[in-house]
Amino acid sequence: MRISVFGLGYVGCVSAACLAGMGHEVIGVDVNQVKVDLVNDGKAPVVEERIGDLIAEVVRTGSLRATSDVREAVMGSDVSLVCVGTPSEPNGSLCTTYLERVTEQIGTALADHGGQGGRHTVVFRSTMLPGTCLNLLVPILEKSVGGTAGVDIGVAVNPEFLREGTSVRDFFDPPKTVIGELDPASGDTVLALYEGLPGEVFRVPVPTAEAIKYADNAFHGLKIGFANELGAVCQALGVDSHQVMDVFLADRKLNISPAYLRPGFAFGGSCLPKDLRSLVHAAQRADVSVPILSHVLPSNSDHLQRAVELVERTGKRRAGLFGLSFKPGTDDLRESPLVELAERLFGKGYDLKIYDANVSLSRLLGANREYIETRLPHLAQLLADSVDEVLEHAEVCLVGTRDPAVLSALPHGDGPLIVDLIRLPDAETRLTEPGYMGLAW
Predict the structure, then answer these.
(1) Would you give the DSSP letter of residue 345?
(2) Which residue among 13, 95, 271, 397 is the active-site one?
(3) 1-51 pLDDT per residue, tens
(4) What domain of life does the UniProt record list for this protein's source (predicted)?
(5) Residue 26: in which H helix or E strand, if any?
(6) How far is Cα 411 from Cα 228, in angstroms, rounded to an integer?
(7) Section 230-246 average pLDDT
């Protein structure tokens, strides 16, 4: 394929060289003439393992050249890969100036090109927040070209997962390939760029592709911060942190796994809140600052409050709650977020009915009973005997359980509004219904 790559920094330079190495005909584009001259001389404008030899080879064979002329690059290619920087503004917001400028330049060049040579596809590889492509860049492109994206021009988002220092290796052995496609033809074009590379391919909506890069980087930062904070606490307590983490990492069932990584409702129970408090307290006593660990419980509380706010926004006063125990299949109410949710709604004057097949006031014993009598002493008058009793009572229902009896009874369309705390099995269908609200979807 004939590809123009806009921006010859780390991402653009590596992408251009590697695509050329795969046999594509690549034109690198940059406003910096020094970078253009370096590439045309067979030299890398960035310091990176293997990149120098690769660029020398693909320039020698004629697979890669560089220019500062946007029109020349666009007219000489079928695909434009946008790899310009998106730095932070002083207030932390994303700077899209370079993206906007390049998009307009590509669009103007395409308009001058007059559509000769078939449909051109613009692929955004730069990191950008969800909504940037569809709400900002596509309108610029359509205005400049005088055509419709997805019809006259192909558009896709293709985030990169290259690590500086190993980016060439990462390109040829990617953890995954993500294609945010405006239309199937655009996605097919991007897929063809990477034909033969290993790793799973995900073809998703454009905003999903934009968000995936942020999910990855936020989690990477979180992992490093978590490990460093835990290491500092362990050191203060005289424990070998690397030994702790070796055992931690060996657990591929709960720790290094998909477990607990699905957006949903707040956590609770007799272990997680208690042990987080103890660990943070131990760190404070040892004079060790642990901002990540110390904000986990406040973050959890904020997420619970979002559910309360969803109910408040409905303007309804008769509420139903399905689920009360902190985990399905148990009657354990200790530090259950659903108990906390019920307490907050009841405290705000909502007329509340609750159904949980595993919870019966007459069966609650010991710490469980003591906890509920302290937190929700009016539970007996709030508990319903059946799913139907709650549905008949409520104007808005909060679903915090996957009890089959509850799921099968939830109405579509007419009936109470649904606040989904767990992502119902038919959530994607319900998203089109006006009475459905999902938490953290």
Answers:
(1) H
(2) 271
(3) 999 999 999 999 999 999 999 999 999 999 999 999 999 999 999 988 899
(4) Bacteria
(5) strand 25-29
(6) 48
(7) 97
Q: How far apart are CA 123 and CA 259, in angstroms?
A: 33
Q: 289-322 pLDDT, tens per residue?
A: 999 999 999 999 999 999 999 999 999 999 999 9
More confident residue, 162 or 113: 162
User: Helix (H, G, I), strand (E, B), or coil: what is residue 391?
Assistant: helix
Residues 6+ apart with CB under 8 A from 180: 133, 156, 157, 158, 159, 204, 205, 206, 207, 208, 209, 210
Q: Does the pLDDT of residue 115 top 60, yes or no?
A: no
CA separation for the pair 343, 352 (Å, rounded): 10
* CB of 55 closer than 8 Å to CB of 17: yes
Report DSSP letters for 48-92, one per residue.
-TTHHHHHHHHHHTTSEEEES-HHHHHHT-SEEEE----PBPTTS
Chain Cα centroid distance, residue 53: 35
Number of H helices and E strands in the chain, helices first, is: 20, 13
When pLDDT is cut at 50, 70 and 90, the band that residue 336 belongs to is confident
Q: pLDDT band at residue 361, thresholds of 50, 70 and 90?
A: low
Q: The tokens of 393 are what?
A: 């009572």
Cα–Cα distance between 186 and 222 in angstroms, integer? 34
Closest CA to 128 of 11, 276, 270, 271: 11
pTM above 0.85, yes or no: yes
Helices (H), 357-432: 366-375, 379-382, 387-393, 404-409, 427-430
Structure tokens at 114: 């007059």
* 346, two tokens: 């009841």
Residue 92 confidence (pLDDT) above 90: yes
Closest CA to 432 of 412, 415, 416, 402: 412
pLDDT at 375 over 90: no
Q: Name the nearest CA neighbour of 340 among 273, 250, 417.
A: 273
**Residue 213 has which token pair?**
């890069």
* Dihedral sign (CA 311, 295, 262, 335): negative
271 is a catalytic site residue: yes
Q: Write 301-305 long-range contacts (CB < 8 A, 24+).
A: 301/266, 303/265, 303/266, 303/439, 303/440, 304/265, 304/266, 304/337, 304/340, 304/341, 304/344, 305/344
> What does the mean pLDDT of the chain come to?
92
